[in-house]
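ok, trying the design again with the full structure, not the truncated one.
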């Protein structure tokens, strides 16, 4: 049976020692007041990059499919600049309460009307909101190894089946997001995992099975300073001043 160490050593080889050390270090976060005069929100700079990668335009109909606690929601709302609509969706009741609190304390009352919070299973959007959104962020539930290492430094409970299960859930959520996108719409799929079964593994499956619906965005000039993977980009904490990990991939609907 593969251990956490064996599994990632095999993938990252010479890099694993420095990457593992960086994953154990406290995450690099900055306090940012997204909206002037409102409370600051503590955010990893890699999260800001993932939200900005959606390239929200004024007037867009935007969906943040897995939104809590809401850091990326704030960045998406900032980009709308008082126009369009943003739906911030979160399945977990407890986490949705946190999301509501973040919106209440960080967003000016003049912008509260542009945001709606919902609590659906993200898999429903592809069925119930077909071809409705211009932009969708899928910041997916993922292995989140850095967070797990904080809780259990030796990762005694790690199992390969965890990342394979999460990859399946992410694939399903990404398919739902694709169906909910308008033609010409954009979806960003992001995770804070370092597992290639998630990330590129999910993208590979989507590009194989949904190639009639989506393609990789060809214009990735805004992401070109990041490390490229087969289908996306990655921010690793052993460089980029400790930010991340964050995987970011962008698809455009035909
Ligand atoms: C990586 S976190 C999102 C972090 C958030 N985007 C942010 O920047 O603060 C993933 C979230 O997805 C939620 N989630 C898991 N499965 C879901 C589903 N099927 N539909 C909607 N949300 C889901 C989890 O409860 C969790 O809050």
């Amino acid at each position: 049976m593969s251990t956490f160490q064996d599994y990632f050593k095999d993938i990252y080889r010479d890099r694993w020692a420095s990457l593992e050390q960086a994953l154990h270090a406290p995450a690099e976060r900055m306090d940012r007041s997204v909206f002037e005069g409102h409370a600051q929100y503590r955010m990893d700079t890699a999260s800001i990059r993932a939200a900005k990668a959606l390239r929200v335009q004024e007037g867009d109909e935007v969906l943040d499919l897995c939104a809590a606690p809401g850091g990326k929601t704030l960045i998406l709302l900032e980009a709308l600049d008082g126009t369009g609509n943003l739906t911030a969706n979160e399945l977990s009741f407890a986490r949705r309460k946190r999301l509501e609190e973040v919106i209440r304390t960080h967003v000016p009352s003049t912008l509260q009307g542009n945001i709606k919070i919902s609590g659906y299973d993200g898999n429903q959007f592809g069925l119930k909101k077909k071809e409705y959104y211009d932009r969708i962020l899928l910041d997916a539930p993922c292995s989140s190894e850095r967070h797990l290492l904080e809780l259990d430094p030796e990762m005694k409970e790690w199992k390969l089946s965890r990342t394979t299960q999460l990859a399946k859930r992410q694939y399903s959520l990404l398919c739902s997001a694709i169906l909910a996108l308008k033609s010409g719409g954009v979806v960003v799929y992001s995770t804070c995992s370092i597992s290639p079964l998630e990330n590129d593994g999910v993208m590979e499956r989507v590009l194989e099975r949904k190639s009639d619906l989506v393609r990789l965005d060809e214009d990735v000039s805004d992401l070109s300073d990041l490390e490229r993977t087969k289908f996306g980009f990655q921010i690793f904490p052993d460089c980029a001043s400790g930010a991340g990990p964050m995987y970011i991939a962008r698809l455009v609907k035909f």
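Keeping the full-length input from now on. The mean pLDDT is 95.
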